[in-house]
Amino acid sequence: MTKQKSAHDLNVIGDLINLEARYLNKADLESWISLFTEDGYYWMPLDSGQKNPEEHDSIFYEDRILMEIRKRNFMHRLSPSMQYPIRSSRVISDIHVSDYDEDSCIVESSFHAVILYKEQTVFAGSMQHKLRREGDAYKIQMKRVDLINADMPLPPIMIYL
Amino acid sequence: MTLSIEKIEKLVEPARVHSSVYADEEIFRLEMERIWGRSWIYIGHESQVRKPGDYYSTTVATLPVLMIRDTKTDQINVLHNRCGHRGAIVTQKQCGTAEILRCPYHGWTYRTDGSLHAAPHPGAYKDTGMNIKDAQYSMRSLGRVDQYRGFVFASLAEDVVDLSDFLGELKHTIDNMCDRSPEGEVEVTGLNCHRFLHPCNWKFFLENLHDAMHPMCAHAATSDAVQNYLSDLPEGTKPPAEAEIIDPFGGSYDFFDKMGVTALENGHGYMGGKKSIFSHFEMYPEYLDAMREAYGEERMQDILSFNRHNACCYPSSTIRDGIQSIRVLRPQTVNSTIIESWTFRLKGAPEKLLQRTLRYSRLINSPGSMVGPDDLDCYYRIQESASNGSIDWIDLHRYFGQDQSEASSLTAMGTSDLGIRNQYQAWLDYMRQGESQ
Ligand SMILES: [Fe+2]
To answer: Which residue has the higher pLDDT, B377 or B436?
Structure first.
């Protein structure tokens, strides 16, 4: 992206990143999906150095279609693994714009997410949001989550982080 | 105190097993010694260690080992990952490259074949009666190391049958994974794999691969979610690529019965044969062209109509040749197992096939998948009951007494417990060997 004088308001961006986390905290996947562009996707790589989700395995790599399927699967009455409460609380910090052009920007941040699923587990790492302006607001074109323990043995991850 | 062979034999009946085989720590210890210590264990693929000195660390029967490519011979060695001096683990890295391995405690160094390169201050051992050149002070090789078409196996024990005989019929499964490449070779997609923590005994995972009665129940939510999504699409919309992968998980009992299950020697087995959960996968024209060019029409048809899935290489791994993935069991304790999932690229095949392999891995094998956690939760529920003593016996009666005998195998309806009963025959054979060997 070519750097120009930023026309991106960090307050508006920060509100969106926090709203996204709030929807996940409430497990409101319907509202959460609506924050993404039509071609938007959610990606959690297996390797922190991974450049491209199509060259190597990923923990998550989901477009709107898979988000819609996951929404229908979440807390499904027939799922054995979803008979337990799934509750989460996310804290995001250091939200900053790392790159931008006129219509889009890349926002980086770090997060802690505490998930209650059978037991309480902490996930932590960094996030990258690629935001695109659509009308007066931003939509998420890509959300990348790099766990600090992506390459370690992991328990099931029952909800997007 | 070691359990007597008579007591062990009482735990396994022809069509049920005692729940303590999943929960008893002494049995777990004996399994590591007699099953995992006396059979060929899957270590990794040669493409994980391409260059001389490349290494990858893992475990065999809970012991740390190192797969390393020899800087002199280019062969792949599998060494005990511990110093010959005071026993410290030599490397804690998952993978790396080293011409010389160095123990960080007292600086003993080893060549890539495990032999001692140097011990600092050697004069201090003069006239002490210790000969540091003695093999016991090296990073010893495992008892046996061999590979089949790039898949590396090792055995702690020396007196085991050759790898080729151990694999037997399963060699065709490995052949088929490789032959699906126009170049006849596969390679790992990366040096990292999914590592999915399973808080349960290792056998639940292996048994589930031969349990075709569970998908339509345990995975009903996921197939329902997919169906529900598809029904919301405008008529005539092409279903997404995920649908062909999830579809079989909602298959009927009849669908799985017709697929069949085959039990092989040494506890191995596979599902399918003429038909598998991959046989309906879309065939990409550009892939068929590449295969036809490499093999000719007839051989290509042979390769692509080979339809097995969930081949189990008892006790350490399960192979899906049709989608190029291997899952590896790394037992930690009686109720904790790490399941590794590796994906492979078919050399010379179009990218679309790799995309499908990766899609499959994310949908089914990843800790973030919708399918894997439902399986795991079912194992976890039985583990709880086995551990808390609320059950005595675990049943294996499905289609009992109705196996069909083939040359060196048994076959049955797909939802039969034959595959699991067969695993317990191998379990008994190994466990009966006692301490004498
Ligand atoms: Fe399953």
So the answer is: B377
Domain ranges of chain B: 41-148, 168-435
CATH code, domain with A25:
3.10.450.50
Q: Which of B191, B329, B357, B366 to mutate to test the interface with A (most CBs of A within 10 A)?
A: B366
Which superfamily does CATH assign the domain made up of B168-435 to?
A: Naphthalene 1,2-dioxygenase Alpha Subunit; Chain A, domain 1 (3.90.380.10)
String of DSSP letters for B146-206: EEETTEEEEES-SSS--HHHHHGGGHHHHHHHHHTSTTS-EEES-S--EEEEE-S-HHHHH
Q: Do B176 and B303 contact (CB within 8 A), yes or no?
A: yes
Considering only CB atoms, A156 lies closest to which of B94, B362, B376, namely B376
Decide if A42 is inside a domain.
yes
**Whether B220 and A78 lie within 8 Å, measured CB to CB:** yes
Residue A156 domain flag: no
Domain B41-148 matches domain B168-435 at the CATH topology level:
no
CATH number of B41-148: 2.102.10.10
Contacts of A157 in chain B (CB under 8 A): 367-368
Please give the distance of CA B260 from its chain centroid, rounded to a whole number: 21
Distance from CA of B342 to the nearest CA of A (A): 9
Number of H helices, E strands in chain A: 3, 6
C-beta atoms of A69 and B229 within 8 A:
yes
Is A96 inside a domain boundary? yes
Inform me whether the pLDDT recorded for B437 exceeds 70. no
DSSP B141: B
Q: Among residues 376-435 of chain B, which lie with CB inside 8 Å of chain A?
A: 376-378, 381
pLDDT band at B355 (very low <50, low <70, confident <90, very high): very high
* Per-residue pLDDT tens over the stretch B151-198: 999 999 999 999 999 999 999 999 999 999 999 999 999 999 999 999
- Do B362 and A60 form a contact (C-beta atoms < 8 A)? yes
Residue B373: pLDDT band with limits 50, 70, 90: very high
What is the pLDDT confidence band of residue A7, given thresholds at 50, 70 and 90? confident
Kind and range of the H or E run holding B325: strand B325-333
Average pLDDT, chain B: 95
Rounded to two decimals, the ipTM of the complex is 0.95
List, in order, residues 6 or more apart from B259 with CB less than 8 Å away: B212, B271, B272, B273, B275, B276, B277, B414
Report the chain B residue with the minimal C-alpha distance to residue A79. Answer: B221
Give a yes or no: residue A53 inside a domain.
Answer: yes
Cβ–Cβ under 8 Å, residues B268 and B419:
no
What's the gap in Å between the CA of A150 and the closest CA on chain B? 9
**What confidence tens digit (pLDDT) does each residue in B52-71 have?**
999 999 999 999 999 999 99
Q: Which of A29, A51, A56, A57 to mutate to test the interface with B (most CBs of B within 10 A)?
A: A57
Of A46, A66, A83, the CB nearest to B242: A66
